[in-house]
Amino acid sequence: MKRTALTFALILAASAALFAEEASPTAKPGEAPAVHTKTLWEQIKEGGWVMFPIGACSMLTLYLIGDGFIRVTSPKKMLPGDQVEMVKNLFRHGKYVDAYDYCKAQDSAFSNVVRVAISSLGEGKAATEEAIVTEMTKENSRIQTFVSYLSVIGVCTPMIGLLGTVTGMISAFAVLGSSGIGDPSGLSAAIGEVLVATASGLFIAIPAFSAYYWLRNRGAKGLHDIQDTLAHMLRGMPYDKLAGARIGDEEIVAADPEWWVATENH
Q1: How many separate domains does the chain show?
Q2: FRET pair for 87, CA 20 to 30 Å: which of 2, 119, 126, 195?
Q3: Quick one: which of 58, 67, 202, 221 has its CA closest to 147?
Q4: Closest residue by Cα to residue 86 from 104, 63, 61
């Protein structure tokens, strides 16, 4: 459908150029015909109403790329080296409560995962690993939530541009139907809307898709690095000596069933 639309647009553009050339006065011998070079703003205005949503998508794309770059590529947000060394040092001295308090005061994906892992040490190795997987899933969802909107923009902006192409072609055929070939300026304006709308949609979609896949892969790599680092830190953890220990201030709301308590009392 896009190829058909572009073919019609090129045909209309060629026709408009031909009729405009025939309608323009003949240049004097030895003089070059005057050429009007359109500015970028004039070309944007030719795109018609679809340039408003496309412009909004372009600003949103820049914001999401910047936000994703900070979230995914910044070591302070994913795997800060100073935090890793601090937690390792506390683990070497068996100061798990201090490590929990330290991670709780930090703001990074690594500290969040370590904090949850430490709070589960008293429940055994299986519970700790399950808690790590759950927290890693949450971190991945937190990272990918905003990045995934780039994929939505990459899909929607070409469709918006295609909608502008269709409306521009409708306008062009309306000009041909009402005034024939006697009004090349109106026909060229409609054709300009066709071409600019399509190009603008693709101009936004291509970098949006590229940034989406790049940020998604970087986020996955960062989470894998966190998992590998934590697995190395938990190797040789004395789960038997930590059995039943409550580390952290997470509230435990589960209790023994009331019939069990009543049985014990009697």
Answers
A1: 1
A2: 126
A3: 67
A4: 104
